[in-house]
Specification:
Largest sheet: none
Number of helices: 4
Radius of gyration: 12 Å
Strand content: under 5%
Helix content: over 70%
Distance between the termini: 33 Å
Order of helices and strands: HHHH
Length: 71
């Protein structure tokens, strides 16, 4: 099911970030996924962390912009 797949993806991303908390790809993927699920606070944490680490990352502007526009 789509819900089951999303939950499996979140678990995999959580595990990836446990092993490497500074994984740019995992932060972007989990942050974006959380936004799609309506968890704007959780998504914001990951996306802001990615911004702080990189100062900008391919694919970050759109989801981070969505978070900032909600404020």
């Amino acid at each position: 099911s789509e819900t089951g797949d999303a939950e499996k993806a979140k678990i995999a991303l959580d595990e990836a970030l446990t092993q490497d908390p500074f994984s740019n790809e995992a932060l972007l993927a989990r942050g974006s996924m959380l936004l799609r699920k309506g968890d704007f606070a959780g998504g914001e944490v990951d996306l802001r962390k990615l911004y702080e680490i990189t100062g900008g990352y391919p694919g970050l502007a759109s989801p981070l912009g969505r978070v900032l526009l909600r404020k």
